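Possible regression after last week's pipeline update?

I re-ran a chain I had predicted before the update to compare outputs. Posting the input and the new output here so someone can diff against the archived version. Not blocking, just want to make sure nothing changed silently.
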Amino acid sequence: MIQINNRYVTFPQLESQMMLSEFERNILLQMINSQAIYSYSSMNELNFELQMRQNITEAAKLLNNSDASFATFRYSRANPRYWSTESNGALRLLPGVKPSVAINDIFINGSEYGFECATGMVIVLYKAVMQSLGEERFNYLFQNLYLWAWQYDKDLNLITTRRFDYFPGDILYFDNPDVDPSTPQWQGENVVYMGNGLYFGHGVGIKPREGMIEELNSFRYPGSMRSAFLLEQATRPDYKKLYQYTLMYSPQYM
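New output (post-update):
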């Protein structure tokens, strides 16, 4: 169900007032049919979330098509023009480098980068935020980027909740409880839900649910009878908070 300014709205009402892509239309239908209540202050705020969800899936496709490789923290690497690689495997933005330039470089010169799947999810989200807010606002808000697992800037403000419904653009997690101790990096896989039953995981690619589970199951310890599975939870950026930044004309007003 969807509320706009504390009033429930129907799909025909929304469709008649919004210019929707097929991707956005499908999400809107899922939200309307959900038992959960999705509340927005305005049509524009709802539209921002829909567009950013599309930007998240597009960023996931770009990362999948880049040459950025999967690497454990020990073997993390990055383009030294923009990032320093720290002893714990974190990537820290170099002084004087624009955040937008450094994030875009991951997608352009991916062969110079290696990182694990949680870092990949945060990179995808930063790229989507940049596309949604524009480079000027992005550079103002995310000046001290630090890429390491689920470390992220406070303005991204990720929210993880237990739930049964999720939509394209959500970050989900496949758990592998019986992972072989010799390959602990495969204890699970963070993924972007792409829609149409497909998921993107850095290092695994874009696969249906069965493909993700099969990949993780290949790293179970011998004799295991427990399969990998998709957790009933979703991680999302704070769309409402990010939308507020679109109301600022310029970073000088922030």
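Follow-up from reviewer: compared with the archived run. The longest helix spans residues 43-65. Marking as no regression found.
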